[in-house]
Amino acid sequence: MDCKIKNIINSFKSICIVIFLLAAFILLFNQNLNAQQHTLNFIEVESGTYSYYQAREWDSLIDLGERALKDGHDYFYLRVRLGIALFSKERYFEAAWHLEKAHQFNKNDKTAIEYLFYSYLYTNRNAEAFALKNKHKLNVPEKTQASVLLESGPILSDNINRNRSDFLVGPDSLFGKQNLSDNKYYNQIGIGFGPVKNTSFYFGYNQLIVSKLKQIQTSELVKTGFDTILDNGWYYVDTLYGRELAMNENRYQFFQHALYFSATQVLKKGWLLNASLHWLYVDYTTIYADAKEVEYFAQSYDTVPNMTRVYTVDTLSTQRNNIVVSATVYKSIKNINTSLFGSYSDLNYQNQFQTGIKVTYFPKGNLNLYASSKFIASLSNSYISPFFELSGGGKIFKGSWLEGSIAKGPISNFNENDAYVVYNSGDKIRLRAGANIIVLLSPGLELTLRYQHLEQSTFLETQTFENSINLESIKYSSNLIIGGITWKLK
């Protein structure tokens, strides 16, 4: 038995020695290989890249060109050849990066400018593409286009079915209310055009109609009868009291009309600046409760009055204007797009400040595959709400893309996508997951279908006999289905 153990130990030692020697050999081999790759000189770089360019050996050109950049070579023709090679391999984001560098060396070379134009165009960087075309008066068939967007669809909710209740008031409370948002319907029409002097514009009008239910339940003191009491030979008649529940319900519609304006300016060195304004007008009529303290004498022989609370329920019409202003800077570095954004809004009588970052990675250097992450921090009433989103997408068929996303809150009264999307219901979004389908029917016609599932929460407000306010979270879900069509007008 001891002999077997010794044999196992010796075998293990032998294996360890072999692994060590093999690792040492690989390390030495790599060092020798690296040592053999001498630093390229200018003649080798220029003649090699030119030869590969002439032979259209794009992979070899890319390998040699990237090695040359690491060795400190950087000049116009090297960047142009790298850009054209990457463009030919459909790695348009990386092509644009090198062609931008080439453009810094020589701002008048038409070949480099034209390849840069199409690199922008094939990566949906249209503002940069047409700003470049207008500046250099490129002779290309693509023209600056205006586009018209129509969107419409429902947001279906289970909020009322799930949370409507006949009993908002418990034994320890005298008042309860909840305001439930249910099904919604959304419409939008917009037009985009430009660039005009390096600036592209978008104007849009959107409408939102929300079905809502407001419930107010009160518990008020009422007389329930009388009781005769014998005390020291005297008869007293006391009044008996109880509490009566009264439920008030109001189904109503919340109307929102909004105007959206966005301008994106192409800056120097690949930077873009977006400024956006979203103005919202809301209009609704619903019930509200007004409370007042009333004196009463509980018994006919009392000399000191008691206090009780009496509620009056009435209707009130509300019209409100809100704004969201947003600023975003964009920068593309090779196949990574980054945006930093901030905004201010005054939704639902609260001031909100918001900031965030979004990073998108294109592993293939084009729009065939992409993944992005987004983080938003919203500050309101000295409370910071975080929001994280992961998304990705890719080309599934010719002219068709599929995207998916998942996001985690909770967050409320916030905006995203340059203030284009505004969530102002006041309810919290705890989780959001969705999918988009994009189909290009023709170069001038695009269809989109968006689906989102949202896990949300609102609250039931109750007031105790001690006048303290309690907020109980109540949950519901919504499903958004929005279809859109975009026409590009020549």
Describe this structure in words.
Strands 1, 2, 3, 4, 5, 6, 7, 8, 9, 10, 11, 14, 15 and 16 form a 14-stranded antiparallel β-sheet that branches. The longest helix has 35 residues, at 2-36. The protein contains 8 helices and 16 strands. With 490 residues, the protein is an alpha+beta fold.
Keywords:
single chain; 490 residues; alpha+beta; Serine Threonine Protein Phosphatase 5, Tetratricopeptide repeat; Porin; 2 domains; 14-stranded antiparallel β-sheet; two-stranded antiparallel sheet
- The strand count comes to 16
Beta-strand portion reads over 45%
Whole-number tally of structural domains: 2
The CATH topology assignment of the largest domain is Porin
Radius of gyration computed on alpha carbons: 34 Å
Distance between the termini: 89 Å
CATH homologous superfamily title of the largest domain: monomeric porin ompg
Helix content: 10-25%
Low-confidence stretches: none
CATH-scheme architecture of the largest domain: Beta Barrel
- Name the shape in a single word: elongated
**Tally of helical runs:** 8
CATH class of the largest domain: Mainly Beta
* Order of H and E elements: HHHHHHHEHEEEEEEEEEEEEEEE
Classification by helices and strands: alpha+beta
The overall average pLDDT, rounded, is: 90
The largest pleated sheet is described as: 14 strands, antiparallel
List the helices and strands and how they pair.
Blueprint (H helix, E strand, L loop, with lengths): L1 H35 L5 H14 L2 H13 L5 H13 L3 H14 L4 H12 L4 H11 L9 E12 L1 H5 L9 E24 L2 E33 L2 E33 L4 E26 L9 E28 L2 E10 L6 E10 L7 E12 L2 E15 L2 E12 L2 E3 L4 E3 L4 E15 L2 E20 L4 E21 L1
Helix pairs in contact: 2-3, 2-4, 3-4, 4-5, 4-6, 5-6, 6-7
